[in-house]
Amino acid sequence: MLHPADDGSARHSPVSAVVLSGGDVDCIAGLLSLRESQPLSIYAGDHVRAILGGNQIFRVLDHKIVNFWSLPMTQETKLRDAEGTELGLSVQAFAVPGKIPLYQETSDDLRDLASTSAVIGLSITGPQSKRLVYIPGCAEVTDAVLRQIDRADLLFFDGTLWQDDEMIRAGTGRKTGRRMGHMSISGEDGSMAALAGATVGKKIFIHINNTNPILCEDSPQAAAVRAAGWDIAFDGMEFRL
Amino acid sequence: MLHPADDGSARHSPVSAVVLSGGDVDCIAGLLSLRESQPLSIYAGDHVRAILGGNQIFRVLDHKIVNFWSLPMTQETKLRDAEGTELGLSVQAFAVPGKIPLYQETSDDLRDLASTSAVIGLSITGPQSKRLVYIPGCAEVTDAVLRQIDRADLLFFDGTLWQDDEMIRAGTGRKTGRRMGHMSISGEDGSMAALAGATVGKKIFIHINNTNPILCEDSPQAAAVRAAGWDIAFDGMEFRL
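YS: structure for the whole thing
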């Protein structure tokens, strides 16, 4: 969430507000790099706020200048900077099937790991009522998820794996995608099939693991994804809605 | 600590071992980026091991493949990779005057914050018995610190601030260097004066805050530092001993 104004201070980060979609390391560790005495708003659901509040290292986020806001699932929230000024964007969080963060796991039983509050998607609406839906991790496209996606102008969706056992085959991991809370792109129960009928302006696979063959531009998997109307995210990609 | 061998696996980090000199965010947060299922040795003193062990997020470092070694202050430790193979380097940790990490602070009283075990320096010896002394944070150059530095081939020393109230003057912070556990470079009780008589091959200021005028190449402060026989670290600097 970039704020255009430069306050002229000696140290400046253009980030006015951060909305956290989960408590995994890749969602929250970046906060440790935003600790340098600059005002910041942090929006997070109860599960993630509990993680941050209960973890001593996140005390480096000085509560005198960092404003922690709740992110209710039941209503649209107008985003504000740390001083309370509206940023012109509103966010609606919604539950997405997923699992608790890896470091919170105490069992290997998927039933214990599933969570209805640990993983959320975000529906973000800007000044021209254009809407972005952001779902970086998703274990299953339920009817509730489909309703959130419906008529979005832009969809960012979990593109972690092409197929469930891909990391095991590549020798880079011992877990299936399902075990990690990620559905795959391909297959009858994959995200391409599940979202084939979705009415969305533009669909982009994001959060792509380095074992996923869609990262190779000339792969048949990349071609299949494009043929199904998806774009593949890359570093530095920009959009304007 | 880079290891030359490439094990040919699909994911590879050249880092075989990490030696932690403190528990501050800038010392330990990088571990969260080394969590991807690769063997790794981590060496740390008791204080830092307690921090890592007591903080849930560091559970992403899988104990099945990440080997945590103790770093005793009383003896030289031969560094090994996660499988126990010697890396050809030995490390001797020594206590340095400093303070506990910011996020562990519960008072503003410097006496409570001072610690004899939270901050360490490292004396690292390679195959040709060349020796590097690494002290990224230091509140005072004591006789014990001087003895460790004596006859090092290369010294990396805490160059955070030029003068104690520099961050307050620049409007980037509310704390003095002393309050943060850092002595300044300049002044009668500064590090330049304290280390003027040290017998060291090469002296480099590292860990330089962005308010420190020695970062401006043409500043009188940079000239003063160079005239006193110091070099000023920069990104990508390399040494061969």
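YS: worth flagging: The longest strand of chain A covers residues 86-95.
IM: good catch. Also Residues 41 and 120 of chain A are 18 Å apart (CA to CA).
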